[in-house]
Amino acid sequence: MNRITVVGASLAGLRAVQALRREEFDGEVTLIGAETHLPYNRPPLSKSVLRGDDDVTLPGAEELGDHWLRGRRAAALDTADKIVTLDDGSEIGYDGLVIATGARPKRLAEHPAGVHTLRTIEDSLALRAELEGGPRQVVVIGGGFIGGEVASTARSLGHQVTLIDSAPHPMLATVGSDTALWLAAHHRRNGVELVSGVRAIGFEGETRVEGVRLSNGVTVPADLVIAGMGVVPNTEWLAGSGLTVEDGVVCEPTLYAKGSTDVVAAGDVARWPHGLYGDSLVRVEHWATANDQGAVAALNLLAGPENAKPYADLPSYATHVHGARIQTAGLPHLADEVRVLAGSVEEDSFAVGFARDGRLVGAVAVNAPKELIRLKRRVVAGEAL
Ligand SMILES: Cc1cc2nc3c(=O)[nH]c(=O)nc-3n(C[C@H](O)[C@H](O)[C@H](O)COP(=O)(O)OP(=O)(O)OC[C@H]3O[C@@H](n4cnc5c(N)ncnc54)[C@H](O)[C@@H]3O)c2cc1C
To answer: Where in the chain is the domain with CATH 3.50.50.60?
Structure first.
């Protein structure tokens, strides 16, 4: 293999390039990235950056030097002739291809001024400028990880915050009912007005947002809105490539694109059969998964499909909401049985085990990091609940 092309210059793409260098791959590596910055860390964008800390450094990013195409977008892929076509019509060939184009926020049809999504450093700085502009009526749409963090940060900066979530309680599907009920109470205790079980369907306001219209006919007043309604994988450029694209690039357990011998995918864009979960197809939007998969996918490309190793690390995520640490591991949403295994919900410190067919498939911990470490081991071992 003489030439490896990596599309997407963020966490997974960077880790792929670094892995190739570590393996002393002596062919040509071309990295194509739509953003103009060095690869940076996204988790601080909904946390410390909003509070004024600009550090989003991703270790190793500086090693890229200038040997990559910044501000350039892949527009099409021809897997027969092994060519990536860029947005200016130029063509980049490859012997091996790493797809690491991540995901972008979902949007309601049109976003007037004052409605923000959060994915890039520009998004975060624009939101920060608004949050610094004095007390506001902030509406957060979506109570998932990012929505919860933004609601928490906005409260700590002194804003009025309404959190709208379509589920009966925020994060119900991700963390189960014990934690979701606790989280709803935690938001309320910290001054967030919670509106659950309704969807945001549009916005009021001519030149700037003045309210959020809900599916129950109510309009919530707003002068600043953050839409955290989940993401969609960036796969449009793969149309017509012959790759299987269904909510991400569908891969083999080794992260080779399904049926391909020279294309791999990694990070938020990859959907693969997870060995710990009976080969159910999963797409994970977590930092650690993108970090690890970038390297694994690149090394598997070098090894070839015959010698490639499956990727089956446990997904895990940590978030802070109003000072509480919430951690998840595995895939709690697959469970048919749930039990609080340690601590107590009333004391804001507990761990929950999630099982399917009697075996642990996931865990959630609130202010109980040591319990999560123990439970992670038990999930990996497939122990009984
Ligand atoms: C605000 C925020 C907070 C987060 N907090 C946490 C957290 O606390 N913990 C956690 O585990 N995870 C967190 N995450 C998720 C984590 O950041 C992602 O899982 C990770 O960034 C995924 O990396 P990636 O390289 O797969 O994709 P991305 O980071 O999405 O990068 C994809 C890159 O590809 C580029 N691209 C897209 N299309 C093309 C194209 N056609 N051509 C060329 N380039 C293209 C994009 O511009 C982008 O630079 C957070 C994410 C956000 C947005």
So the answer is: 3-104+231-303, 107-227
User: pLDDT, tens digit, for every residue of 360-370?
Assistant: 999 999 999 99
* Fold entry, domain 107-227: FAD/NAD(P)-binding domain (3.50.50)
DSSP-derived secondary structure for 128-157: HHHHTSS--EEEEE--SHHHHHHHHHHHHT
Q: Among candidates 262, 270, 268, 266, which has minimal Cα distance to 244?
A: 270
User: For 323-342, what is the mean pLDDT?
Assistant: 96
In ligand 1, which atom is closest to the CA atom of 105?
53
Please tell me the distance between residue 41's alpha carbon and the centre of ligand 1 in angstroms.
8
Classified by CATH at the fold level, domain 3-104+231-303 comes out as: FAD/NAD(P)-binding domain (3.50.50)
Contact 228, 118 (CB under 8 A): yes
Atom of ligand 1 nearest to the CA of 39: 49
What's the pLDDT band for 65 if we cut at 50, 70, 90?
Answer: confident
User: Which structure tokens are listed for 86?
Assistant: 């860029």
β-strands 324-330, 337-344 pairing: unpaired
Residue 130 CB–ligand 1 contact under 6 Å: no
156-189: per-residue pLDDT in tens? 999 999 999 999 999 999 999 999 999 999 999 9
Above 70 in pLDDT, residue 66? Answer: no
Counting ligand 1 atoms within 8 A of each CB, the residue from 45, 101, 117, 269 with the most, and so the one to mutate, is 101
Nearest atom within ligand 1 for CA of residue 75: 41
Indicate whether residue 118 lines ligand 1 (CB < 6 A): yes
Give the distance (Å) from ligand 1 centre to CA of residue 189: 32
